[in-house]
Write a structure and sequence with these properties.
The protein is α/β, with parallel strands linked by helices. It has helices at about 5-20, 70, 130-135, 195-200, 205-230, 250-270; strands spanning about 75-80, 85-90, 90-95, 100-105, 110-115, 145, 150, 155, 160-165, 170, 175-180, 185-190, 235. Strand 1 and strand 2 form a beta hairpin. It is globular and about 45 Å long.
Amino acid sequence: MRHITRKTLIFLISAVLFMAGCAPLPAAVPSPSPSPTSTPAPPPTHTPTSTTAPQLSASPTSAPTKDPLSLLPVPPRFENSEEGERVYFGDAYKQLPEADTVDEIIVPELIIIHTDGQTANLPRDWNTDSTYHGLGEWYSVHFAVSQYDILQMLPMYPDGVLHGSGAAPQFNDQGEWVTYNNRSIHIEMSGHDYNALIAGWASPEMAEAIQKTTDKTTDLVVSLMWFYQIDPANVLGHYQIGRGKADPGNLYFEQYFIPQLQEKWENLQRKLQP
């Protein structure tokens, strides 16, 4: 072994190297590929809604519309008839005989206030039934008023009233023949001597009757003024348009009736304001 030559040594080494280079490499064991794992689907994204309560749009808070008819001291009632829609004011209706009326519908511009002159009864007995029966032939008015009630005696309509005959035609100061009936509503108050309330000689019973009758009459007049658009200046006493007439009494009418009427009219205007 000592005598192995250099060539022999080189040959042996080369053979070993050749054999090593030709030997097959061990097969590579394939690494197991990871089995596909199902990725869970992400939960649905939920966009959080606002927790603030929705704001309601404010509806216009306009004041409720006032019904002017319901605000009148004496509200009218309506009823259909053969002639058209009728209007009733007050507590009752009792039509006067046709012979005492004029068959004509007029547009009222004036309201004339009378007293019926009931003298036979005590003030507590002044009543509208006596007014109704005491008017006389060819004499007709639209209303009778007592301390107890308001009685309508002629037909009335939304745009006019039946022609009454509460004031006689006459010559005026200019010598002209005039009549107020063709443009007036006539109202008779039960009783007499209403000036006594102002003059101071009315008994307590008489004063009470006049005051209560006045209260009902001014309520009625205010309602008629509004309904038929009659100016307050066109509410007159019979004495102001009839020669020789004194009713309902100038002192009473100017110092008691008109001031009360004006106050009620102004109160109604305030109620009707929006």
